[in-house]
Design a protein that fits this description.
mainly alpha; 2 domains; flat
């Protein structure tokens, strides 16, 4: 099995657990004289089975990520950490640029000459340029990660 297939299996199992959790909660209590739509105990047992499988898959994914060489990016784990931090950095820079530019502010700005002007404390254009560079870096590392996911076999 390729790493990418295991990642898809992990995502499916995670969604399944969430659906089972919701069904357990929906059926955990019922009114006297009524019958619950589903057996909450059976659903809980099914969730346990899916969670056990999910744990095994996650362990194998993590083991594979730590052992997979990505060249200049280090291991696959290193590349994932780099991508996550790039995404956070991009979000911070973008939020800073939006705030400095007044994006999302209500009103029409200064209406009279006697009103105080609101000035940007940060260089919006430079922040936008930096955000563009970060977005490109995110795309590039994501492509390398995705490519590697389909090349490497999942470890036991």
């Amino acid at each position: 099995m390729k790493l990418a297939e295991a990642l898809a299996e992990r995502a499916d199992a995670t969604r399944r657990v969430e659906r089972l959790r919701a069904r357990v909660v929906d059926n955990a209590r019922f009114q006297e004289g009524e019958t619950p739509a589903e057996d909450a105990g059976r659903l809980l047992a099914e969730a346990d089975e899916v969670l056990d499988t999910l744990e095994r898959v996650i362990r194998r994914i993590n083991k594979t990520n730590a052992a997979t060489d990505m060249g200049t990016d280090g291991t696959l784990t290193d590349a994932l950490a780099r991508r996550d931090v790039l995404r956070l950095r991009h979000a911070v820079i973008t939020a800073a640029a939006d705030a400095a530019a007044g994006t999302g502010e209500r009103g029409y700005g200064r209406q009279l000459r006697s009103e105080l002007m609101v000035l940007a404390a940060l260089p919006v254009a430079r922040l936008r340029e930096r955000a563009d560079v970060l977005a490109r870096e995110i795309r590039e590392i994501d492509v390398r990660i995705q490519r590697r996911n389909w090349e490497v076999d999942l470890l036991d």
